[in-house]
Design a protein that fits this description.
Oligomer: single chain
Largest sheet: 7 strands, mixed
Number of domains: 1
Low-confidence stretches: 3-18
Number of helices: 8
Strand content: 25-35%
Order of helices and strands: HEHEHEEEHEEHEHEEHEEEHEEEEE
Helix content: 10-25%
Number of strands: 18
CATH topology: Deoxyribonuclease I, Chain A
């Protein structure tokens, strides 16, 4: 049973005291699939998402897309009895779309603010963080660019490396309910032609190295790493380069707990890739979250009382007919606008005191 249901009912199966909005927080991630406005940005390749572009991206379609994403986020809030404290997003074009998103009727009551930096991706899609200022106080944010400064052996030669562009990693440090907390939001390089394992490994390595430096600078800081990793929790980018572990028992202080690793093995998925359900949409936490002192924010089981992650999969986010029946209800199908949400499902974890 979801922790959320226990919250709403007031008492857990073990007779625990009712939880309130002050002692639990929803931390989530959502790849919103090409959230572009209808305006031409001369510095980015957004030609597909213009009124006269390939997708005939009109103001009406844009508004429908915004309302759909807002509805999905609101539905998660309904499930938990409160909006996310922090919510990482991938595939947003700019500040404009974020301002429009948080102003949607379904989200207006949340009072979301956002952090966004323009990154280096050629298409102009970035990562961002929505947050509730009554829960999370931002102290600093950085956009971490991709580089090839690594011992990894890359398939790309120096010329190809110089021409390569991808999404920056967003790091936001602040205080979540008074506790020092940092969030990394990533969208690692895509799987193009079954390649890019080395690129994603480097992306994970960049996040890990920055997180370790942050932990050294701020002892005790709690960290969540989230994003569309374009890899599963069991892939090398996660296990070897982000140092992700499946169980709390096997963790060391410099490793991350991966709640979705065991969920993948149990058959869960957040998106479909070539006919197979995968969990590319991951959230990992450091040891300070897993083994937190009593009375402070700590990760809790949320799915069926045993899994520490949640893939949000209501019927309205699943396509009910057509070529992609049974998969996430996307915006386009075979080039036709079908008024869907995203080709990814949202994921989240619960932190509780």
């Amino acid at each position: 049973m979801l922790l959320a249901l226990l919250v709403l009912s007031g008492t857990s199966a073990c007779g625990q005291k009712k939880k309130t909005t002050e002692n639990f927080a929803v931390v989530g991630f959502y790849n919103v699939e090409n959230l572009f406005d209808t305006l031409d940005d001369p510095d980015r390749d957004d030609s597909q998402f213009l009124p006269d572009g390939e997708n005939k991206w009109t103001p009406d379609k844009y508004r429908r897309k915004l309302n759909n994403i807002a509805r999905a986020i609101r539905a998660i809030a309904t499930e938990n009895g409160q909006f996310h404290a922090v919510l990482g997003l991938a595939e947003v074009e700019n500040d404009h779309v974020l301002k429009d998103l948080v102003a949607c009727e379904d989200l207006a009551k949340a009072g979301f603010k956002f952090v966004h930096h323009e990154g280096g991706d050629g298409r102009g899609i970035d990562c961002a963080l929505l947050y509730r200022p009554d829960r999370f106080k931002v102290l600093e944010s950085r956009s971490i660019p991709y580089d090839f400064n690594s011992d990894i052996e890359f398939e790309y030669n120096k010329e190809e490396q110089a021409a390569f562009s991808t999404r920056d990693v967003l790091m936001v440090r602040g205080k979540l309910d008074g506790e020092m907390f940092a969030v990394y939001v990533a969208h690692l390089p895509s799987r193009r032609g079954d390649k890019g394992m080395d690129l994603r490994a480097r992306g994970a390595e960049i996040v890990y190295q920055d997180a370790m430096a942050l932990m050294k600078k701020y002892p005790g800081i709690k960290i969540a790493v989230m994003g569309d990793m374009n890899d599963d929790p069991v892939d090398a980018s996660m296990t070897e380069y982000l140092h992700a572990r499946e169980t709390i028992a096997e963790m060391t202080p410099k490793e991350f707990f991966s709640p979705f690793m065991s969920m993948l093995k149990a058959g869960y998925g957040s998106m479909e890739y070539r006919g197979t359900w995968e969990i590319f949409d991951q959230i990992l936490v450091n040891n300070n979250v897993v083994n937190a002192p009593a009375g402070t924010l700590k990760i809790q089981p949320v799915e069926q009382g045993k899994f520490y992650g949640r893939v949000f999969k209501p019927d309205f986010l699943i396509q009910q007919s057509g070529r992609y029946k049974g998969t996430p209800f996307r915006t386009f199908s075979n080039g036709e606008f079908i008024d869907g949400y995203s080709d990814h499902l949202p994921t989240y974890i619960i932190l509780s005191k």
